[in-house]
Amino acid sequence: MPELLSDEEVRSQLPEGWERDADEITRTYGFEDYLSGISFVTQVGEVAEEEFHHPEIVVGYKEVEVRLTSHEEGGITEQDIRLANLFDAEY
Q1: Which UniProt keywords apply (predicted)?
Q2: Domain boundaries, the chain
Q3: Which of 7, 16, 32, 72 is catalytic?
């Protein structure tokens, strides 16, 4: 089971463009149009399924918000940071 990261570890490992929101890390990705955002959600979903770690995703007209946390551990772990980097690679 992954261990929670300390506040300093989260700060130092948080990928560019991501923010901390309490027990989660979040990023809002912008897109040219709605269907580009939907395509991104599909790619993120495939990565999440492969990693068996699933984010909360909110789809807007030209943006997609992704929120990551490790519910079982009660906060942010290396797995969340890893997925954030993988999602950024899809963007």
Answers
A1: Lyase
A2: 7-90
A3: 72
User: Which residue in the list 54, 56, 63, 90 is annotated as catalytic?
Assistant: 54
CATH architecture entry for 7-90: 2-Layer Sandwich (3.30)
Distance CA 32, CA 51 (A): 28
Terminal-to-terminal C-alpha distance of the chain: 28
Which pLDDT value is given to residue 2? 80
Contact 84, 68 (CB under 8 A): yes
Burial 50-77 (b: 16+ CB within 10 A, else e): eeebebebeeeeeebebbbbbeebeebb
